[in-house]
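User: Continuing from earlier, I have the next pair ready.

Assistant: Great, send them over.

User: Here they are, in order.

Assistant: Folding the first of the pair now:
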Amino acid sequence: MADSSEAVRKKEETKGIRGKTVRILLLVAAAAAVFCGTWLYYVKSVVPGNAYKKAAAMLADGKTEEAIAALSDLEEYIGKNIGRISGTGNADELLALGWLYSEGIGVGEDQEKALDYWLRAAEAGSAMAMELAADYYYEEKEFSKAAEWYRKAADLGNADAMTALGVLYENGQGVEQDYAGAAEWYRKAADLGNAEAMASLGVLYENGTGVERDYAKAAEWYRKAAELGNAGAMTSLGVMYETGYGVEHDYARAEEWYRKAADLGDAGAMTNLGYMYSHGSGVEQDYAEAVEWYRKAVELGYARAMTNLGYMYMNGYGVEQDYAKAVEWYQKAADLGYAFAMNNLAVMYRHGYGVAQDYRAALEWYGRALEAGFGNAGDAIREMVRAGNVSAADAAAWLG
């Protein structure tokens, strides 16, 4: 059958506080602020048992689990003593208290209480608290309030807030959609060294939204962000080298950037590496290696990798041919809203690969793929009508 692995490269956006390492930093910073009276202590502070110093040293050595264990006593200490905090402290203390409740560190997790502290800290002039309050409203889809607080933080020079405001303008969330406005905010944040903003500018230049399309400038911004450790930008820069847009075509450089991003946990980069090995693009074709990379990305819940892994099972590349497993992976990706997988799943039902042949199910999945933006699915529906697999009336429900 035709190549049904996905070659499209996309930049995935990530936002918010995640991961054990960040949890440790929040614990250290917040407790230092609350119990030592100033935000500036961070990991330099000393509390009973030198827990901060121990955890900071372990964290520096990459010993995340050990650092968590070292802070367990401190977390208990926070829980026992937080009641003595009056809540009338300065902005930094209020900010820290909000973090403790947001992360459930030493106290029960309470997002509304965290927001209350952040709003009080924001009113006291904390730009970081303004940003965190905006993050809360963004997660709650209260975009107008999010835009209001991001703007206040941005006006105080907070680069992360500027970047977030750019996202709102780009998506038309809480503000009127304005790509040029998004580019303006991204540029302001980029000028302050914000890597995410640089990467976002790269996307705008690559797509020609809000700015004149310029692949060279896109590559330039991706490179700046990549050099600051932004994994998404590394992947995007790899795509530029693989396709020759904005830079000289160079598979070796593409692989280099994909590997760097993959080492940082970027599922898109892992999938792109898998595609290179599957098709022998700049590397020796190696289906087993391709499958390995797809599996790594699949473990991160990445739909494009699921689709490509399904393709490998469909054709027996790097794995034993197994139509049922191909259907399973297409289904998982389709359930995540991935149009390409929906189309592939329709193919399986149409021809009875790994499932009982079912033209109505095929029509439904082609229709869903079409609704999700996969234009070729419309042609497949028309072919089914011409072949007498489905009626023109049933097809019209999807084709309009």
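And the other member of the pair:
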Amino acid sequence: MIRTLLVALVGGSIVSIAAYSGARALNPDLLNMLECTVSGCARAPTARAIPDARENISLAREIDRYFAPLVASNNFYGTVYVTRGGEVLAEAGYGFASIELDVPNTGASVLPIASVSKPFTATAIMLLQQRGLVDLKAPLSKILPDYPNGDRLSLHHLLLHTSGIPDINVQPAYVELSHAHRTPAELVAAFRDLPLLFEPGARFQYSNSNYNLLALVIERVSGMSYGDFVRREILEPLDLRNTGHPDRADTIIPKLAAGYSPVGRAELARAPWIDWTVKTGNGSLYSTGADLSKWARGFSKSDLLSRQTLELATTPQLQNIGIDSMRGDLSYVWSIGRLLDRRKVWFAGRSPGFSAAISYFPEDDLAIVVLSNTYSLVTTQAADAIAAMVFGAPYARQEISDAPLPVESVRRWVGTYQFGERAPVPRMKMRVAEEHGRLTLEPDFAQMAPSALLPVADGTFIVRSYWLELKFDAEPNAAAKALTLFGARAERVE
């Protein structure tokens, strides 16, 4: 095990201590490169490839270079796993699995996978459909007779986020719900009596409640708990030994990483504790890069689903979804898009302290998994960048700066902005504040912490807490009139 500590300097001040550990495809000389980040040295890295895979040395080095500034600035800890045709091209761990215990990540670290759990839930529904136990288009009331509006809702609506059911994650009671063990029935009880936001099928609006409700459907139809059904019907047939659903908060999960949240401009804090059963169906699973790579390939290459069901599961049902974690078309199980003129089947998400992205390119049998134990969607951009590395295409390198900007320029963006009804949190306001030439985003929603805005270009910033791009809409040299974030537009109101 190779490990070092790095003191990162920003603006002449010590702001963080990071650690790195490499596994198999990653190299000890990344440590030198990280040290060069703060000392200015020019030692060239010499990557170690996976044994007997010399052709992958260049890829390993390129992945190292991409992640070095992210690790050094406390914007990524986690794992990377890349396979093609079942052959491992790269496997690595970055940063700490536990800062408190001085334990580095390795390629075998286990991490919660947030909304990347949803394709497993959707696949469970497809298995029930394949066996003739459910009908995707039939009224939900046939399965749950007492569910409000069950005659207007269907599994089709739930799978595609077109139900109009409000998102449990933004309800006032959610924080309290997350502090104790919950069953799917208890979770559904928290939102079942809320009025629908729109007529089912009228439009797309992402809601985690849909997948809590699907978990309840799985339990009622199968007679098994959600965790047992997923394990017996999906994980065991595909030999996913390090993936699971934590039915109990006191379960010991070997090699499980701790989760961290970005705070301030370059620091990390321990993520709030939650009982992961609060995310049953929509984000409760944990896994590894190796298991998720096997899952991406096994979904279409195994006999888990029949040819007919597989086609149904992967045929786009909605086109041009605009939110950052689901861009492209949406099938019952996966997001479907194109990258570098290739078909990309993918999914991404984040939960407190963690984020995850999985991409599969069927034509090339290429699987890319990026998991992080920091609460930031760096993972999605990183997976696309790694795909570009593999295919020899250009990609945007990470250039992270938090240098102060001219005050007269920055003040153009200062103000309060409000989203509309179709935003992830309807009518939410966000205040953009300035101090000494640096900007901070301050949401008026209790479950969203303030975040540093890192400049990318004039009027374009990275929201550090989410690693999403925020763009201001403004005429040259004029104050901004709106901003765009989360795929939604917020108008300036103050």
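Worth noting for the second one:
The two ends are 54 Å apart (CA to CA). Residues 1-53 have pLDDT under 50 and may be disordered.
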